[in-house]
Specification:
The protein has 2 domains: 98 residues, Phosphorylase Kinase, domain 1, CATH 3.30.200; 238 residues, Transferase(Phosphotransferase), domain 1 (Orthogonal Bundle), CATH 1.10.510. It is globular, with a radius of gyration of 27 Å. Helix 4 packs antiparallel against helix 6 and helix 6 runs antiparallel to helix 8. A hairpin with a 3-residue loop joins strand 1 and strand 2. It has a 6-stranded mixed beta sheet with strand order 4-5-3-2-1-11. The chain is built from 13 helices and 11 strands. It is 29% helix and 13% strand. By secondary structure, the protein is an alpha+beta fold.
Length: 426
């Protein structure tokens, strides 16, 4: 039997406490995975160490029923002498933030698909009494089939102490998340529950359709942003994508009183969101079984031509997801007490770039010495002056870059009538 080892293939991103790598495990036949690495030797006894332990426990919890179409899958957790590794599915299509940067605001029909899938992913977490608390474009990944995967449970929290179907509020007194998408009660360190994720969904939907947050300050000042979220009237950005139906939908999510928000626990949860007129009567099950076409497929660089019929397993999963049973008991969510219990130790290899074989220099024949001759100075100056070049000489030198190296970039809609965004073709 081959020795178990983890091969790190390349870094994707890094932060103060963790790094994200592409990796491959020797004993795993399912190909490349994405791993989050954490230096437990340096930070194991800190709050950051506790946070990754909880993230591991939550990943196992929300995947205990076999996973969800719109939640990133958990593969394994291992450690070596220095680092702890959380391995998740390799989604492969980038993230929502990059998609917005490339294509700009989405038309409502495109945003509707993404918002619906985010709502269903959050509903899955909420069925386990888990609040995500950091819903933002960077944490929404795009699969190769164009559908989304909600990722990063590092800020998530489970609401323990369920009484029947009514979980208690979740509050640890910490202000966790990204201010631009945080609900007022989170910024004020008050009690929070799954209703905070509905607020974040409203912020996300606004950014998808308008290209900007409804609360961000023009100068980027965080204090002004917090004042906008907590106190000032909520005004959506003016944009052609946001009509009366979109305005009504987004403002229903962005109500400061948590129990008044569309899709709040008090109002029936996610199913109330799909009853809103903005979804035009398309049921949640149609989105959950991927029967609504996605506006962009990475490998096609545009919309898909057709939608495959859902498998029997996906239909059964959809039925269970829309009528979830009670989550596992509280004792199933008990993070390990230390990293020694994280999982088995493993050997980790870091793969560097491939090295080319060392070239053997060929023998250079000796040539007779020839005294070099130099052209007159005027001729050299003419050769260096582009204004003196002939057409053939200019073509040989290639493109002349303006000072500073800046290139003019033509807009996509100026080229042969191509739409400004592939999402406009959806």
């Amino acid at each position: 039997m081959a020795a178990d080892r983890l091969q790190l293939l390349g870094m994707l991103s890094t932060s103060d406490f963790s790094s994200i790598f592409m990796a491959r495990r020797a004993l795993d036949n399912n190909g490349v995975v994405v791993v989050k690495s954490f230096n437990h030797a340096a930070y194991g006894d800190t709050d950051a160490g506790t946070r990754i332990l909880h993230e591991r426990a939550l990943l196992e919890l929300v995947n205990c029923r076999g996973g969800h179409p719109f939640v990133v899958g958990f593969r394994f957790a291992i450690v070596d002498s220095t680092f702890a590794y959380l391995a998740m599915d390799n989604v492969g299509g980038g993230d929502m933030y990059s998609l917005l940067q490339r294509h700009g605001p989405f038309p409502p029909r495109a945003a509707r698909v993404y918002v619906a899938e985010v709502v269903l992913a959050l509903a899955h977490l909420h069925s386990f009494d888990v609040v995500h608390r950091d819903v933002k474009p960077e944490n929404i990944l795009i699969e190769l089939d164009g559908h989304i995967k909600l990722a990063d449970l590092g800020s998530a929290k489970r609401m323990l102490g369920r009484m029947g179907m009514h979980p208690p509020p979740c509050s640890d007194g910490d202000i966790i998340g990204t201010p631009e998408y945080m609900a007022p009660e989170c910024l004020l360190a008050q009690q929070a529950c799954e209703d905070t994720d509905q607020w974040s969904t409203g912020c996300l939907g606004t950014e998808m359709m308008a290209g900007e947050s409804p609360f961000a300050a023009a100068d980027g000042n965080v204090e002004t942003l917090v004042i906008n979220v907590v106190h000032r009237p909520i005004d959506l950005p003016a944009h052609d994508n946001i009509g009366p139906a979109e305005t009504d939908f987004l403002l229903a999510l962005l109500r400061r009183a948590p129990h008044e928000r569309l899709g709040s626990r008090a109002n029936g949860g996610a199913m109330e969101i799909f009853e809103h007129a903005w979804f035009e009567g398309v049921p949640a099950k149609a989105f959950l079984t991927k029967q609504v076409p996605v506006p962009w497929v990475p490998h096609l660089n545009g919309p898909a031509d057709h939608v495959s019929p859902p498998s029997d397993a996906l239909v059964e999963m959809a039925e269970a997801a829309l009528a979830p049973s009670l989550p596992p008991p509280e004792d199933s969510y008990m993070p390990p007490s230390c990293f020694a219990e994280f999982c088995e130790l493993i050997t980790v290899e870091i793969s560097g770039p491939p090295t080319a074989p060392e070239a053997v220099p060929e023998a250079v024949p000796e040539l007779p010495f020839v005294t070099p001759s130099f052209p007159p100075a005027a001729s050299a100056a003419a050769e260096d002056d582009p204004a003196m070049w002939s057409d053939d000489e200019e073509a040989a030198h290639g493109e002349i870059m303006p000072s500073g190296g800046a290139r003019s970039i033509a807009k996509a809609d100026d080229l042969d009538g191509t739409p400004a965004s592939v999402l406009d073709m959806a």
